[in-house]
Amino acid sequence: MLEKRKFHSKTRRNVCIVVQLSPKQSGRIRKMGSPTATAPWKQLLLDALRSNSSLKHSSFFQLATVGSNGRPANRTVVFRGFQEGSDKIQIHTDSRSRKIEELKHNPLAEICWYFTDSWEQFRISGIVEMIDHSNPDSLKLQQREKAWHACSVKSRLQYLGPTPGLPYIGEHLTDENSLDSSTSPVDSFCLLIMDPDQVDYLNLKSNQRMTFTSTQSDSQEKCWALERINP
Amino acid sequence: MLEKRKFHSKTRRNVCIVVQLSPKQSGRIRKMGSPTATAPWKQLLLDALRSNSSLKHSSFFQLATVGSNGRPANRTVVFRGFQEGSDKIQIHTDSRSRKIEELKHNPLAEICWYFTDSWEQFRISGIVEMIDHSNPDSLKLQQREKAWHACSVKSRLQYLGPTPGLPYIGEHLTDENSLDSSTSPVDSFCLLIMDPDQVDYLNLKSNQRMTFTSTQSDSQEKCWALERINP
Known about the structure:
homodimer, alpha+beta, Pnp Oxidase, Chain A, ten-stranded mixed sheet, 5 helices, 37% strand, flavoprotein (chains A, B), Pyridox_Oxase (chains A, B)
């Protein structure tokens, strides 16, 4: 029989957690039910990032979307951190890339993030918001500007190149000096923000698997229901 | 201006290749247009597997599918080799897993395979065939049996466990002796075979990207059109 527990955080950034526990479940899951401002899967993810930090590729994950033709699409992208004070995941992309068309058609995406050192997998599913230069919200444009300035000059130069996916017609040379540190984001720079609503966590070393499902409570706080499932 | 070349293989396993070249393109792409029985992207993939072979995780990739609700799904799976004499990719899975429902609804999938040592990415898209115990084709059942016997006993034991994704109700112990080497595949063992029709190859070291698109020619041989595109 399952127990249910409900915790409400008293902090500014509220997170409520509903834990479904079977009598045999480990202490680790119980602990995650304690009041906290951090989504419980986010803490696991931060731990995984820390324990795999020696590997450059631990900040890469695969993002799946659906094309207007119903075909799934899947590519490697770089984790650009969480949006401040939230569990929303930031990604940078080129506004001219095919994933933008796909997300306009269907904003749902699933991240698959496998940590090769700790043998942990996070499948993070949610809606992706696109913030490009035409966004009417000045606050969102500020977020985009901040993301742009957090990039290295080398990363920024990519957005000055030819349209990704179009036929190659020869080498394109970009002048590094055309982008000094004060330059505003170029039009092709787009900030993607995924708001997760489902997370599936698998640990291949301990052979444990858990799902985290978000629901919005009456008080507008985000609630996460945890359940241990068969791997 | 683009040149076009067409090559026809004289070998038993025919592959024809159409190469679209711009004058500035590298010798590497030209070479891939020479007659061969191997799909041109397959040779690149075999090279990547070889140059990343010291890493256990180089045989893992991410498989994206689409759920009946239109949501993309994405998970890490293990590469189980090519089907003999072809460019079809083999994967093993549990018939009770959610990806089976998804593939029954929409058999299209996209693999994203990132090689962490050589910085190469293969996005391989195609239709996935499911071969489970109920398959009426005796030849396909033989393929499934062969795949089962190629697995380690530890891998096979997974298929005797409780249904993946259902609530965990305590530890499930499986007797290793219940599976001796002669035992036939259990009902939950399913062989997936992806038949690729599009491959997008990206090399982050050389900053080169190519697409390979398959078309079936009149003579039923598989044709691959190559094009270099902007990364």
